Fold each of these.
Amino acid sequence: MRDIQKILTFCKNHKQFTVFCILALVVIGAAVFAPFIATHNPYEAVIANAEQPPDAKHWFGTDKLGRDLFSRVIYGTRTSLTSALLLVVITLFAGSALGIFAGYFGGVIDSVIMRISDMMISFPGLVLAIAIAGILGPSLLNAVIAIVAVSWTKYARLARSLVLRIKHKDYMSAAVLTGSKTGYILRNYICKMTMPVLIVTAATDIGTMMLEIAALSFLGFGAQPPIPEWGMMLSEGRAYLQTAPWMMFFPGLAVFIVVAVFNLLGDSLRDILDPLCD
Amino acid sequence: MKKAGVKKIIAFFVSAAICGSLLSGCGVAAGAGETSTGTAEGKKTLVIGSGQSAGTLDPIKAYNGWYPVRYGITQTLTKMNDDYSITGWLTENDYFSNEDNTVWTFTIKDNATFSNGNKLDAEAVKKSLENVFENGERGVEYFAPVSIEADGRKLVITTLKPEPILPNKLADPLFCIIDTSVDNSKIDDNGPIGTGPYVCESFDTVTKKCVVVKNQIYWNGEVKTDRIEFIYSEDQSTISMGLQSGDFDAVYNVSMNDIGAFEKNSDYKIKTNPSGRTTIGFMNQSGPLGDKVLREAVLQMQDKDSYCKILLKNQYVPGKTLITSASDYGYDTLTDPNAYNPENAKKLLDEAGYTDTDGDGFRETPAGEPVNLRFVYYTGRPEQQIVVEAAQAAMAKVGIKITPEVHDTQTVMDMQKTGDYDLLCMSINIMNCGDPENQINTYFKAGGTYNATGYDSEELNSLMDQVHVSADPKQRKDLIKQAEQVLLNDGAAIYFCYPIMNFVMKKHVDGINSTPADFYWVDENTTINN
């Protein structure tokens, strides 16, 4: 009872966060319960129904092969959300780990990691991701790998700067003097001190990552037919823009809404968690 | 208080400067409002968009010869007419052969010259033809010359075997006549020196943009346009929208999705023809499709009528035979043993032991190997992506997995040559010489340059050998129909559809051609009337 009261108080004090959290849960719910929400099989092509405008039977209309667009957009939530979250988690952990090692150990490790990082950021991110995805071959997994390969630097640099800030604090020296092992220090001091900021950064990046995945799929480097993915659906609809605009409109709307929700949720989370934020 | 006021003023000016900078980008760029039809310096410039291009302009490599002919740079000895008949182009119409069709004599037109001023005589033609056989790769598939003799304007070609349709074969762009007396080491970029109404000014091997300018000394009359730019993009929307926005004056092969908008608009005119093309799904028998049962199942799952009527918006005719319904080669009389029959396709797979043993929704081979057919295609032709994805969806219904794989046209052509695919979609102009012999040999006969499917039918090979030496048109047609039936019986390939080709242009553009040959785009009469 007291816990519920606590949650209610927290929600009352953080209305913005609560609203966006609920919206994000709705999006996640759409992904989890897609089979119950979708009205048709998203893969089932009924050629006779191709390019039907929205009506009572097909709420968002149908695509070029007669597949129900509403069902594809709902199932697309699974693809887009899963890939974006996977991307954020991998980038967060890979980038943070490298940044923490660079910052804590310094020397050659620092130089090698940070010079590689400098090299990576000297190229425009998406262009480099396109090049990597092009080499790896078009698939959703390869698109995720390509974006991880260009996005980890942000977390590495951030983590390194956070580590450098706390590395020479008194409590760190005390930990070393009392015989704490390196692994213990990294786990209980460095990670604990840096993670809140890194997690907030990751949360605000979910929307951006989602857009990058959609961009690669739009360009043909990500999801491949017949997987329902919003970027790819936008690309498919482009050829029909003048005759069947709903094929672009609804996937575009889905991208817009979900990215906006996660961006605003990330901002709200930062307001609450980030100790460095004013 | 005073400090805060200054800050506000600075903030205001900075904001205003940023907004001003951003808005400046929204202005109309100089000249953006003008159409592409240039009249700069009083010169007529035409811009043509297309989803088709070649890797280089060297006519003897692959099918590159099509482009110098399409761009009006080169010409051939003979020319194919819209009724598939052949007449002289660089040669007079009085060509003839001996009784057994092994010696052909041509008279080169007296007034023909190359664009560099060199006279076109039989010797120059001889050198150009010899270049095809010595340095090219497909020449011998057309005919094997024993000797080519030149004497003034008289050209005598002696062949190893009887060549009853040699004038047809010489109409193929592979045999376009180029000046070999000049340095052709940079022909890939600079293009060949030909006899056509235009001269290649530049060809970008990366963007595939080609610019041609008026041949000032064209042998067959005054050229009406000063400059033509050929812009390449495999993106169908880009091409259509380019025409609507005025960036292009004409566009080759507007997609079925966009053609309706131009039909309704009186500012444009459209030229169409049934064409000799067939959109073919080649099946590589070196992989899982070596099993005839699987090929038959693939074929019997293709609802080509619905593809053409609904997905391709009646801009295509449903395929049945290798050779288009627009010509008389058995479309109405031959029997397709693998016509659309989804129930039977499922039954075939069940009986052959294709079952889903791992529960992933897709069947494995009787030996338990997963089946995942790579379907290679390109987007330079609008029907390809649709038929490939429709085939993928159709095959998924019977539990056969197909993975589409898109590449640019040139890469797909290279893959076709090496056999790096399970299924490959390609649009072939089977009737490009007014006769299908060469293309059948190239794509289906054992040893054909582009036959990497492993298909080798003794019956077909024998029939095509007979076609090669047969002079009687009726007999040729009968033999070719038999060969087509062999291909149908063997389930050699999917004949998806026959496109109705189009060229859409602004109403003031004249002299752009859409022909069954598909490589006579522009000529000396191509012009802009505004």
Amino acid sequence: MDWLQQLINGISLGSIYALIALGYTMVYGIIRLINFAHGDVFMIGSFVGFYAITGLGLSIIPALILAMAVCALLGVVIERIAYKRLRNASRIAALITAIGVSLLIEYGTIYFRGAQLEVFPSALPTKSFNLWGATISVQSILILSISVVLMIILQIVVRRTKVGKAMRAVSHDVEAARLMGINVDRTISATFAIGSALAGAAGVIFGIYYTKIEPLMGVIPGLKAFVAAVLGGIGIIPGAAIGGLVLGLVETLVSALGYSNWRDAAAFIILILILIFKPSGILGKNSREKV
Amino acid sequence: MKKLNGFWVFLALSVVIYAVGQLLIGTGLLNPYYSNTLIFIVINIILAVSLHLVIGITGQFSIGHAGFLAVGAYISAILTKLDLPFPVALFAGGVVAAFAGLLVGIPSLRLKGDYLAIATLGFGEIIRIVFVNIDYVGGAAGMQVPHLTSWTSAFICLFITLIVIMNFTNSTHGRACISIRENEIAADAMGIDTTYYKVAAFALGAFFAGVGGGLYAHNFYIIQPTNFGFLKSFDILIFVVLGGLGSLSGAVIAAILMTVVSTYLQGYPETRMIIYSVVLIIVMLYRPKGLMGTNEITSYFSKWTGVKGGRLHGK
Amino acid sequence: MANKPLLEVKDAGIRFGGLKAVSGFSMTINQGELIGLIGPNGAGKTTSFNLLTGVYVPTEGEILFDGKRINGLAPYQITRRGISRTFQNIRLFNELTVLDNVKVAYHSLSKHSMLSSILRLPSHFAGEKEIEEKALQFLRIFGLESYKDEIAKNLPYGQQRRLEIARALAAGPRLLLLDEPAAGMNPQETQQLMELIAFIRKEFKLTVLLIEHDMKLVMGICERLYVLDQGQLIAQGTPEEIRNHPRVIEAYLGEEVSKGDA
């Protein structure tokens, strides 16, 4: 058992979860909606990347950017068509609409292109090198770098730019933000765009790393990324990154110990434990209902 | 004695529906394909009504109901494999599912809203993964099950389910559950043990989901863990939501409609799912309370006849 | 009457995080008294109610009801011991009828089991009949009988407040906590409500603790008053004593001044 290698695997998987989880957490933070369709945006990103590389002959970075752009647009469209009307609806109605959108994207994709698998072209060098006796692939290092770069860019956007400040203001108090002259609709759209772009990037990275993609591929990573978001503290951006990494490491550990059939259960057990013992997550603060 | 009137009407209606179904199936007027659809409708109504108790009445948003379906399916299948009588197997499946409901409900019902939904989804998935990992029931490959479900057995189960859930709802215990749905803090302040009733509704709902699971399993020749994924949970959820959260008759009507539609579209699974999802989105956007809201079909009759069919609320 | 206090609060308090919301709260209420709890906005009146009813568990001090410790009990357990309440921001069961709202509160006093209801045993019918009769009786007292089949959320505001009190009463309390029962009512409605409170108090041998923001209103009917300001008890005594208490004047004056600023 090569622990360093497992560690790298865990971090790579974790960084994919983290990228998806960021979108969940941003959207939840701003409109308190569990966007079930987010995992499917991730799937679309993967397919856009696939077609860009195999069909248009693009190299990895332009394909990644194209996937992010398409997903950003898709995210905004979903929000405008389905979620915008639900801002004042019950949470249950919103959640069910999100489930509906998710099913629509999945089966719409199957309808148009069929349910068959595609094998993602290896767009990155498949070389590997030795480090303290462990075999580390260049791919996983590059994947990790892309994820880290994207998260740093996100952090800069949220902390330093006007849009980022507006996002934080709206997530804190919609009405106050509106009164301060912030365009709430546009801010929410921007949040969906950014979150979906990150999911699109995660889709491409997932394709490169795991090579097989199919229309229902977003379901399980989507759910797990949600677990990651809850684990880190939903609505808290650094929390999503931490949650993603922890989850990726735990899953890799469970597999490495020979329980790969239980890998998926591990994520849900973590979810339930965290919900019961600290529902606000690793970085969250507890809040109480006003009576 | 208005309530008794309602009961006799219900009983008469049930006997008529059963007799018509039996006639159509028994005489071969209906081909096996449609007979099976009828049985499937009955099973789906049981599942819809069992979830209605949890979501519609008690207001606890559970989206892992397929887990209890799986428990009932597997337990009853194991028991019939051991040559126990079918009714015993169904009941035992329900009891074990209710027990699973307690195990899931006691920790997770402390959570509310979205968090509860996600926790139940997680539990549903864990239950499914547990069955994948049990070799005795065939793991992911599945388990063979004798075909034992008939129109009669399914209908009797449905009849009992409806009676129990209606009687529960139209009593002080059902009102306690509804008060939790309406305002949990006020219910607590009025002396309602909210945890007890949430867990009770959850376990009762799980029991009938388990019975439904037993019928479901014995209506096929094989069951696999993938039959009980969260898509199955969503299927059941859709009945309850489309029918109107809080409306038993709404859940029943939605279960019938959706089963017919999905049977009709069986040859086109993608189209079926696309229609499902579009209907779901449109209903949520334009009629978020579902088809019936919290009203019961009896309240529409009472407008004409002035008879109250034991309803609890609605104008 | 005044042999043993019904409610005894000893130095109760609660912190949220590092913030002391209420501290050193002590109060003694004897059987049959009508006590007022007053104070400016944000003084901690509702928080004190939440401590007494178990919505919040006190982080310090002790609460005795009828000589027995009740802090740490769940709200429903405290209600069953005999303390029931209304809410400042009305919390009715909105989609239920007026009658069903009251029936819910009588639930814990009814005895028929879940099984008897499911099997429709005779005890179910007897139990439900008793609940219905009791609930109707409370509606009659509050003049809400004609609204019994109305959906609670459709009632006019003043009637909703009355329904909340009727519901609290149906839970069978010995101590009734009313959180600003007259909020939003006009003077005439307020007058009627106060008479009603006086009536039920006598009729049901109740002890009443009343939160009121408006000092003038409670002065008239309460026998003793407790005054909270910034989470601290600053005064207690008869209305006459409170009226001239310098710290009370200061607290209320402070509020007037800050209101003038805003």
Amino acid sequence: MNSIIIDDELAARAIISHLCDQVDSIEVIEEFPNALQAIKFLNKNEVDLIFLDIHMPDFTGFDFIDTVKNPPKIVLTTSDKNFAIEAFEYDCIIDYLVKPITLPRFLKAIQKVENFATSKQPKISSATTSKQPKISSATSETEGVSKKELYVNIDRRLIKIASETIYLIEAKGDYILIKTEDKNYTVHSTLKKIEEKLPGSLFLKIHRSFVININKIIDIEDNSVLIARDVIPISRANRPELMKRLNLL
Amino acid sequence: MEEPNLKYIQELALGDEGFKQKLINIIKVELPVEIDAYTMNMKNGHFMKAAENVHKLKHKISILGLEKSYYLATGFEEDLKIESLEKRGEFEIILSQMTKFVNIL
């Protein structure tokens, strides 16, 4: 099985690679310190198995799975036991290894991978298919309140931002990062809340962590969007809605 | 108090001295970088980012066989998300122990 390892920690990649060396049926063909590099690789190459860290800065393992077209079999590797329930909502996830990974536990995971249905086409999980883009209530203007501008609370000051100047909003834990042409703002809020405050005709959620201003798109390449200087992934579930909103020739 | 050790690395290496040394060298490089990132975020009051640093450091803690410390770090990681620094002192003692241990390897 051709495999890749995605983990931001070099020590973790070295350990998984060493464990793979103990199994004849597995060949590690590439290692990546972040998910975006792996996505680019997978756009041009096929692999049978991915060892995927969940907890990576900016782009998590789950973000990665939501973005990749037809994900192959995946074994999650993590220092966090809390994601186990979410993990098994994805049919492509075969096992969940908690670090530090031992050889006996690793071999058990490989056994599970080998026992997994031999079908080459991975099933689309109910979790991923249920993640259909929702048409936000932001598509209709709230009565009496203009969505042309947005007021955000920063250090007890309400700062006005013209909605059309916003090109990207990124979820960052309990905060959101609002990027405009001139300045970035970190605000304690959620993507869902800000979506409701912005004109739905301009803004679209293209990924669980990103809302973009579709007027600011520079180009779209397969499963990513270039917007200003940022390359943003498009999740499989959100891609159809994005394509619908474009004036395609 | 438990001491850092190479038990996990030795078991993992299966007698492969080259791999053992490679992993130790990686830890020697990565650990100070991860500790610096944690220290900087704590200094600047960026506790969510510091929690991410602690999360990453947990793996190093477990690689160096510090099982009880791992649980303390897990608790501290969660505390940082609500800006509670109660376990900071104990956690930073663990970092110091690991640094000393790794430096003499």
Amino acid sequence: MTIDVPTTGRSLPQLQPISFIDADGRLTDTPTAGLRIPGDRTLTGLYRQMVFVRRFEAQVTHLTRQGRLATYPSAAGQEAAEVGATTALAPGDWLFPTYRDSAALLTRGVPVGEILAAFRGDWHCGFDPNEYHTSPAATPLATQTLHATGFAMAAKLKGADAATLTFLGDGASSEGDAHEAFNFASVWQTPTVFVLQNNQYAISTPLREQTNATMLADRAAGYGMPGLRVDGNDVAAVFAAVTAALERGRNGDGPTLIECLTYRMESHTNSDDPTKYREAEEVEHWRQFDPIDRLEKYLRSTGAVDDAGIEEIAAAAEALAESVRDAMNREAEIDPLELFAHVYAQPRTDLAEQQQVLEAELAAAGRA
Amino acid sequence: MSVEVDTSTRTPSAPAAEAVTMAKALNRALRDSLAEDDTVLIFGEDVGRLGGVFRVTEGLRAEFGSTRVWDSPLAESGIIGTAIGMAMNGMRPVVEMQFDAYAYPAFEQIVSHVAKMRNRTKGRVALPITIRIPYAGDIGGVEHHSDSSEAYWTSTPGLTVVTPSNPADAYALLRESIASDDPVVFMEPKSRYWMKETVSLPVATGPMHRAQVLREGTDATLLAYGPTVRTALDSAEAGAEHGLSVEVIDLRTLSPFDDETVSASVRKTSRAAIIHEAARFGGYGAEVAARLTERNFTHLSAPILRITGFDVPYPSPKLEEYFLPTVERVLDALESWDWEL
């Protein structure tokens, strides 16, 4: 007698990360799970945006060292995952980012000053989520993966043609919420794409102390959903994988987990000291897999870009950096009384009384 | 046994009255909310086919289908976290935490996201979520089935915390909670699920944010909510036999606190005590005693007392009777005041 259980429908990701363009800018012969390399025009656009976000991250990190921002978690080195995944979204889709995804917010069209409001200390979320179809960046790890799942469930119930994409990291993959989101999304078959940026470190803790699994993408099988392991520094692979996964979701075929292998080139935030937990040689080693260099080589080899094109993109990135400096050099107007404005829909006497206290203090100090 | 309820604010020309339990009144509130608003969704552990372990959602899946009422995987953080996403996408989720202590895995989602989303987005994203939590003891429950967790929620800005003590309020307050654009932690006293009251549903019982004077008195004010309202009413009755005129107020909504109603009563009686099952230290009663003292000090003849569970973990069933605040303990507290003042 045997127990009657399903014996089909389980598949594990291929061991070799999906990649189209190798570190030398040449096409790989890696199996790509049926995915196709994006065309040169798409790739040129992705290249342009990666150059922008790298310049953005460098500028913001610099301004943070100058004290213009309270703290900043840079995604330098992770441009391919940030830009490739976010660019794959349709305007009606929703993005559920983390604190390290400013590059994704920039790619989504959120204005610089509104992205950085949180890190400058102006307000927790500086942009209108409904305008950019983008959730406030979540700081508590993996919590946003459940929001993405619920949002997608509502879309499915409404019969809307929207999918959701959420980022999480290798550290966040250890959180219970990540597990719960993978499971809920798969049970409910929601149109959700989980883009797991495995950047090798959770602040200082290396991947080998985070998991004993061969790869994080393997987890998908345990939830009954497809998992893909992608070279996260190959924007062509990320874009193709995420585009296909979003399409799967919109077609009613449920969620996908995509692990992007990448590396956090900068420290966790400006207040971190990476010399305590990793060697400079390791950082140098990863530099050879740089996502921008390889795509530039590839696009030059196909003739999609030339020196003039590269220079034009670099100049535009400089203009972006200048707009970042301008935005951060303009102090936001902060109204202390706004502390009380958005806590409840229904006004409360307690808050009104406390607001009066602050108003009186401000008046006494000649500030109101 | 039925609670004495002020029916003066009830809807006129209501349908015929019948004896309903609090569980049934809650069930009817959910049903009417589902019928009235297509964006209302109910999901949680065992709330579909079974109708919930307390049968509060009984029959709703059959009536509204599994796209409105369904069983979720068993994970409380997952339930609240996905409810957040649904609310961001225009839905009005009503979710059930199966028992008080089983809401704790969802603590982060409730405290860090549900409570804060409106604030962090400057009012651009509202989360009209109702989180139903059966709470408190006196049901002979094994470990982790009898906690009174209200102070965790009331000490979190951004949350509204509501708890009915009788079937009519259970109906009216749940309807209002679901309709609210603020997230509501709706705490249902388990020991009162099967109490019956003769009531015509639907019923309106006065605004959610107002406390209600259930019994008028002139010598002392007993403040209670949820499971202890019965204790307060019984104590007032017993006090009357001792010649004391005791006013009883059902707080109904714990956050915000109805200072107007309560302070008016305390100024009239000059003595007050708050009764709750939860432990005393740092409990909800501490806030009540502090704010009533701050606002009414010169009107008070005696310190405000807290009649609460002991500062120990909720005990096993055979020890509950020693832990829970009883009528005797309330009377002892009333007697402890210096009545010459």
